Automatic annotation (TrEMBL):
The lineage of its organism: Eukaryota, Viridiplantae, Streptophyta, Embryophyta, Tracheophyta. It comes from the Eukaryota. Keywords: Nucleotide-binding. It holds the Pfam family Ras. This is Ras- protein RABF2a. It comes from Datura stramonium (Jimsonweed). NCBIfam families: small_GTP (TIGR00231).
Length: 197
């Protein structure tokens, strides 16, 4: 098959989840603490190498505001891939992500490769959406501003994100646009999963 392909990719998710920051990290290797809100949508492109092929992503970074909702189909229609982004510190953004998944399942390209990105994974102290099952009594260790801290899990944490992704045919990764955790990996994994030409 063809060694070089183009793939239209759309980022969807709540305002403030970090869509623009993920794109900025992926395309320019940068992070801005006070990233401006996207108006309408913004376009970027970036090429990744997978195995012996290259995939040029044509990336549409959408706004996320409800008032722009009617424009979303323009960006996801014909898209080969979507990254649905939520903020791990914001339960409402996870609920919003699920709505986007439903909409894509109903209206999007049936072969679309979909990734669920739990962004802001660096903000562990403020986590609201669990990634996986964490058994009761587990001692969570993390460091925060040079201090070693630990917490004991006293509430059963549901494996919300991973389970949801598995049940809905998405792949799931937690990301941080700030630290660059898994940012390139999400795009590479999508590139690997795209139907080969
Ligand atoms: P968008 O509305 O989904 O495009 O979100 P933005 O990319 O504009 O990000 C919203 C805010 O969250 C900005 O202040 C970003 O600096 C911040 N932000 C984005 N990604 C991360 C991240 O991974 N970690 C942290 N700590 N902040 C982030
Ligand atoms: Mg934005």
């Amino acid at each position: 098959g063809n060694k070089n392909m183009n793939a239209k990719l759309v980022l969807l998710g709540d305002v403030g989840a970090g869509k623009s920051s993920l794109v900025l990290r992926f395309v320019k290797g940068q992070f801005i603490e006070f990233q401006e809100s996207t108006i309408g949508a913004a376009f970027f492109s970036q090429t990744v190498a997978v195995n012996d092929a290259t995939v040029k992503f044509e990336i549409w970074d959408t706004a996320g505001q409800e008032r722009y909702h009617s424009l979303a189909p323009m960006y996801y229609r014909g898209a080969a891939a979507a990254i649905i982004v939520y903020d791990i510190t914001n339960q409402a953004s996870f609920d919003r992500a699920k709505k986007w998944v439903q909409e894509l399942q109903a209206q999007g390209n049936p072969n679309m490769v979909m990734a669920l990105a739990g962004n802001k994974a660096d903000l562990i102290d403020a986590r609201k959406v669990a990634a996986e099952v964490i058994p009761l009594g587990t001692k969570l260790k993390y460091s925060s501003s040079n201090q070693d801290m630990s917490k004991i899990v006293v509430q059963d944490r549901k494996p919300e994100a991973q389970t949801y992704a598995e049940e809905n045919g998405l792949f799931f990764m937690e990301t941080s646009a700030k630290t660059a955790l898994n940012v390139n990996d999400v795009f590479s994994e999508i590139a690997k999963r795209l139907p080969r030409l």
